[in-house]
Amino acid sequence: MRAGGAGIPAFFTATGVGTPVAEGKEVREFHGRKYLMEESITGDFAIVKGWKADHFGNVIYRHTAQNFNPLAATAGKITVVEVEEIVEPGELDPSQIHTPGIYVDRVICGTFEKRIEQRTIRK
């Protein structure tokens, strides 16, 4: 997804060389090591969940949502972000933005039920 979001159509990786995954794929050797050519992952739509966004589509994620959502947002031709809160432009600290608005086509403010689970133990 990272390559697809950057506009790179394919890349070489050592992962999968010599396995059934490599069957029918181009293999090249660089500096004495074999690499398998893999196509990048892109999609027509990317639907991601963010924490906050402004009206320009700049998005901040929380916790584990930072793992793949920024990559998915860049890899989609059309990106829709659902957030907990939409703030006014300028309210988000520029150094905290994970996905710039250039990658986002639509921002939706969702309603979320936040369940807090607590472990209770009987005596």
List strands and helices in order, with pairings.
Layout: H1 2-5, E1 10-13, E2 27-30, E3 33-39, E4 43-49, E5 52-54, E6 59-60, H2 69-75, E7 76-83, E8 85-87, E9 106-109
Parallel strand pairs: 4-7, 5-8, 7-9
Antiparallel strand pairs: 1-3, 2-3, 5-6
Total number of domains: 2
Per the principal axes of the C-alpha atoms, what is the gross shape? extended
The chain-level structural class is: mainly beta
Helix-strand sequence: HEEEEEEHEEE
Low-confidence parts lasting 5 or more residues at pLDDT below 50?
Answer: none
Describe the overall structure.
The protein has 123 residues and is mostly beta strands. It has two domains: 2-39, no CATH class; 43-109, no CATH class. Helices cover 9% and strands 34% of the residues. It has two helices and nine strands. It has helices at residues 2-5, 69-75, and strands at residues 10-13, 27-30, 33-39, 43-49, 52-54, 59-60, 76-83, 85-87, 106-109. The strands form three sheets. A three-stranded antiparallel sheet has the order 1-3-2, with no helix packed on it.
